[in-house]
Specification:
Elements lengths: L2 H12 L3 H8 L3 H8 L7 H10 L17
């Protein structure tokens, strides 16, 4: 899943507008719009901060069969 989809879905589930999310996080609303339109790929820290403000969490998991340990 792309950052754009993850953020957009989390924001909508939280019932927040882009402006409200911008106020809560200090990330400019136009930046949030560009992320959601998949025009920019945010840094992990930025995405994490945005998701946390939506009540969501960014996590990673190992996928068996990929990488050097397969």
């Amino acid at each position: 899943m792309k950052s754009a989809e993850i953020l957009s879905e989390a924001r909508r589930r939280a019932g927040l507008t882009q402006r409200e999310l911008a106020r809560r996080t200090g990330v400019a609303q136009p930046t949030i719009a560009r992320i959601e339109r998949d025009l920019v790929d945010p840094r992990t820290g930025t995405l994490d901060r945005l998701l946390e403000a939506c009540g969501a969490r960014l996590s990673a998991e190992t996928v068996p069969g990929h990488g050097i340990d397969r």
